[in-house]
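Workshop exercise sheet. Pairs work together: one partner reads the sequence aloud, the other fills in the structure field after running the prediction. Swap roles for the next sheet.
Pair: D.N. / O.F.
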Amino acid sequence: MRNIVTLFILSGFIFLSSAYDKSSLVERFTNCSCGPCATINNTWYNATTAGLVNSGSISHLVYNVYWPSDCDPMHLLNKADNDLRTNYYGCNAVPWIEINGVNVATNETAFMNAVNSGNAEYSPFKIVLSPERLPNDVIDVKVKILRDISDMTTFDDPKLRVSLTEKVVEILSNPCCNNGETHFYSINRKMLPNAHGISFEIPAPGDSVELSLSYIPSAEFLQEVNLDSIRVVAFIQDHCSQEMYQSVMADIIYTDRVNAAFTADETLGASPLMVLPNYIRNC
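Structure field:
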């Protein structure tokens, strides 16, 4: 993401102005036995999103819902997070696409118009991700949020939401997955700390704030997920209005650092996990 800096010189004074490019967040709802989902995937969706991800034009995140197959393994591994995001948007049919928190029609023209429109918007934030996989398979994600020096936005309840996605999930033989697809992309495997997200201190214009999240994978997670294929998606979204302020994607990097930073703001482990009250808001 580019940081555009412009210098204005007037009457001997120098004014510094900066603005951040916005990266549209595409959130897709699907199911591995959804026939129409496979149709749009094969027709245009997979190729289009792959190109946009590779060019850095979007962040991409796919949630698997509980219908038409209630035994979709990608839904079951992360049922709580998938269900929360499904209910958050009121998703009641698949395929379903949200771009920057707005539902769009499932055709390529509407999709590209929404992506391009979102990318042309002003963003008050820049997100810098530093995700690491440690030798003990702990996943450590450091997030730095910078605010535009000239920003005057009035915020309500912005949340930082972070997802561990698997770039490609291969399912060759599973009776629950019968839509003809064998490869599934950008699958939401775990949200940190969960799908409610994190409230954070909004930095003053020109300042920044840093957060750290750690996840200790469960045995089931390690069995089902290829850690070498993990990509982190982070986004800032107003909880009530669903307005999307910024998103970013970054591949996880393996490091030989021995211990995770357990002074993190949120340290997570295998279930059961407590949902903290401040993550829940009735709008």
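Discussion prompt: The chain has five helices and 17 strands. What would you look at next?
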